[in-house]
Design goal:
The complex is a heterodimer of chains A (251) and B (482). Chain A is an alpha/beta fold. Chain A has nine helices and twelve strands. In chain A, the strands form three sheets. Chain A has a six-stranded mixed β-sheet with strand order 6-9-10-3-11-12, with helices on both faces. Chain A has a four-stranded antiparallel β-sheet with strand order 2-1-4-5. In chain A, strands 7-8 form a two-stranded antiparallel sheet. The longest helix of chain A is centred in the middle third of the chain and has 15 residues. Chain B has one domain. Chain B contains 13 helices and 23 strands. In chain B, strands 5, 6, 8, 10, 11, 13, 15, 16, 18, 20 and 22 form an eleven-stranded mixed β-sheet that branches. The two termini of chain B are 14 Å apart. Classes of the chains: A alpha/beta (251), B alpha/beta (482). The interface between A and B is medium-sized, with 30 and 25 residues.
């Protein structure tokens, strides 16, 4: 599904990703961990197509297509979804209109007719239950006046509505209390399927207690320096990153 | 990819004015220049009574003593008033019983504008008084309105059919001495609309007028007068588009509204005059005087405007709150792009007791344009317990445009409560990226964000206009983030 090879990317003059490689197969959940400044959020931004980042080397293919050649909106229509670390507010634009526009574009891209109003509302009702937001969204503007937890739940709700195949979660657990963490994780788990893959970026093991990954990778200085299974996350929780840094430096 | 600076510029500048076409209809035109003889000619062409000719001549004398105002935050080459023709009427002016009799050329123009009169008649119940250049050529729904005693006709017709009303109200809200352009308009106005709603009548449909400048170098001087008698209600819509021209066209309209006891007037405008090309050549000068008089107790006047057009705009729809408990409202979205300049806002003059006013102004500047809000809230001595709330927001779409706010507040009564809020923000790349990441392209993202920003104002427009206005905002700002 997703194949990243030797990816180098920089913002302005600073190189942040320095030869990152990662293979994600359909249905897999990959957790990306790593100390601050290792390039985790940059990876998310590059995959989503943010313009501030320049790819200088390497390749990313998504379902056989060159992802880096696609504009951000095309990537989204092809099934790449980024759950933002800091979802922005768009005052005056209702959640419903926003989603209607997004779903309309994605369906058009797939050659499908627009969703009938009745079916759309049914879908909203069904999917908002996943993150316990039912009935709370209809009259509100996109993320405006939402609490931190509500914003993150709204991201997962949008993910459920848009039915992407590759979901990138950028520190979705940051700023969440225990209850919200549980709600968000349940929402994500409900969306796991053999066709849908997840790249979960996080600082903390606690998220991975809820969303159990197939693989855990440690990103350090712009490269994946260690990969393992969920046990690796536990080890990191216990020992921190210093031992990994030492391993890397000694090579 | 999507929004590189240069590419952007290209897409902004390649977007030409969509309604830029001209109609080939022979015009009956006065010689260029302005003097008493020209005014006599206009008056005689229109078979006007002598009192109106005298009224015009007095206005001309007043105008000659005045100088063009300089205080607005706009720069432009002053028009040469002797180089303009002050009267132009489509030559074969037909008296129509039905729209089917309309000149096919003119019919085509209306269709290009998206104004299908039959459509509007049938679907939305809007009575349209279409003004091509200066003479009204088609009026519909008249009979239906007449049953209720509502008068809705061209100003020329009103002068003939209802001289007592015109004589009583013309120039009472905006006297000929008011300002340079109002004086000029009073001297040379050619046509416009008149509307009278009798006591106790709620006008059952939105009254609507479309204006269009069609003749090169013809100043257009419209005159609109709306009188709502006691306990009546009317919603009036005005919308304009103009064809592309190289030379600047002058538009100096006067709109007067009068609301008696318990009456309400809602006046909505969607304005899309030709703004000039991407280099700032051409475009309409829009120097308009609009004022409403809340004459009676509990009366209410509400102005809503969506301004996207004109090279230079100079416009302050105002309310004089004379009647006790009267209410004035001003809701505005003003968009400027390329080299457009707008200096617009409102004046709320509180005279009566317990009067209240609300001002919501949303400026959007793109390209190299300059967008200014200028407003006056004046609470006079007699205005016990007056209230005002003002909110002026500016949204910047590029780093080469300007947004300015000039709020004036004068309070002469210490029971007044006046609130003013203002914000300035730049359209967020984060907001746009968020939309892109959900599959929404840049144009649609801007349209969503801008319409969201202007929602409070757009919501005040009647349904017929709200949809049109949203499209207009999107068209005016296509590719304009930078």
């Amino acid at each position: 599904m997703l194949s990243i090879k030797n990816l180098h990317a920089r913002v302005e003059e600073k190189e942040i990703l320095k030869g990152l490689s990662l293979e994600v197969k359909p249905g897999e959940v990959h957790a990306i961990m790593g100390p601050n400044g290792s390039g985790k959020s940059t990876l998310a931004s590059v995959l989503a197509g943010r313009e501030d980042f320049e790819v200088t080397e390497g390749s990313v293919t998504f379902n056989g297509n060159d992802l880096l050649e696609m504009a951000a909106e095309e990537r989204a229509r092809e099934g790449v979804f980024l759950a933002f670390q800091y979802p922005v507010e768009i005052p005056g634009v209702s959640n419903m209109n926003f989603l209607k526009a997004a779903i309309g574009e994605i369906r058009k891209h797939k050659g499908l007719d627009p969703l009938a109003a009745k079916d759309f509302l049914q879908l909203v009702k069904e999917k908002s239950k996943l993150v316990e937001l039912d009935g709370q969204l209809t009259n509100r503007s996109v993320n405006e006046g939402f609490s931190g937890g509500e914003k993150k739940r709204n991201e997962i709700f949008q993910m459920a509505m848009l039915e992407p195949t590759l979901c990138i979660l950028d520190e979705t657990d940051s700023g969440l209390d225990i209850d919200a963490l549980r709600i968000v994780s349940n929402g994500v788990n409900a969306l796991r399927s053999p066709e849908r893959s997840f790249v979960v970026i996080t600082h903390y093991q606690r998220l991975l207690d809820h969303i159990v990954p197939d693989f855990v990778h440690v990103l350090y200085k712009g490269r994946i320096v260690k990969s393992g299974t969920k046990e690796l996350a536990l080890e990191l929780e216990e020992r921190g990153y210093d031992w990994i840094k030492e391993e890397v430096e000694s090579v | 990819m999507a929004y590189e600076g240069d590419e952007l510029l290209d897409s902004v500048t390649s977007k030409e004015y969509e309604f830029g076409f001209t109609t080939n209809i022979e015009s009956d035109k006065a010689p260029i220049g302005l003097n008493e003889d020209i005014i006599r000619l206009i008056s005689s062409k229109k078979n006007e009574p002598d009192w109106l000719l005298q009224w015009r001549l007095e206005a001309f004398a007043i105008w000659q003593k005045m100088t063009e105002p300089n205080w607005a935050h706009v720069k432009y080459k002053k028009p040469d008033f002797q180089a303009i023709s002050y009267y132009s009427a489509p030559k074969s002016k037909p008296k129509l019983n039905s729209l089917d009799e309309l000149d096919p050329e003119m019919r085509k123009t209306m269709e290009k504008l998206g104004i299908s009169l039959e459509e509007q008649k049938r679907l939305s119940g809007v009575a349209v008084d279409f003004v091509m250049d200066s003479v009204s050529v088609a009026t519909s729904f008249k009979d239906k309105l007449a049953e209720l005693g509502i008068i809705f006709c061209s100003m020329s017709e009103a002068v003939k059919e209802h001289p007592e009303l015109i004589k009583k109200y013309l120039g009472t809200v905006i006297p000929r001495t008011d300002n340079f352009y109002a004086a000029l308009n009073s001297a040379v106005f050619t046509d416009g609309s008149f509307c009278y709603i009798p006591k106790g009548v709620k006008c059952p449909m939105e009254l609507s007028t479309y204006f269009r400048i069609n003749e090169a170098n013809t100043g257009q001087f419209e005159r609109t007068l709306v009188v709502a008698d006691e306990s009546s209600y009317v919603s009036y819509l005005e919308g304009c588009t103009a064809p592309m021209r190289d030379e600047n066209q002058l538009h100096a309209a006067v709109v007067e509204l009068i609301a008696m006891d318990n009456a309400e007037i809602k006046y909505s405008t969607v304005q899309n005059w030709y703004p000039g090309d991407k280099d700032g050549n051409g475009g309409v000068f829009n120097f308009v005087t609009k004022r409403g008089m809340c004459e009676g107790i509990n009366s209410k006047i509400s102005w809503t405007q969506v301004e996207t057009g004109s090279a230079v705009t100079w416009k302050y729809p105002s309310c004089v709150l004379k009647g006790d408990n009267s209410v004035g409202e001003f809701y505005s979205v003003a968009v400027t792009n390329n080299y457009q300049q707008a200096d617009t806002g409102t004046k709320m003059i509180h005279l009566g007791k317990n009067t209240s006013s609300t001002i919501i102004s949303k400026g959007i500047s793109a390209g190299k344009s300059q967008n200014s809000y200028r407003g006056l809230v004046q609470i006079n001595k007699s205005a016990q317990n007056a209230r005002n709330f003002s909110q002026c927001d500016s949204l910047l779409m590029s780093d080469r445009c300007g947004a300015h706010t000039f709020p004036y507040i004068e309070v002469k009564n210490n029971t007044a409560k006046v609130e003013h809020e203002a914000t300035t923000s730049k359209i967020g790349e984060d907001q746009i990226f968020y939309c892109l990441q959900r599959g929404i392209d840049q144009e649609q993202a801007i349209s969503l964000i801008v319409n969201g920003y202007a929602k409070e104002v757009l919501n005040k427009l009647p349904m017929e206009f709200a949809v049109e206005a949203q499209k207009l905002l999107a068209i005016s700002l296509e590719g304009s983030v930078g």
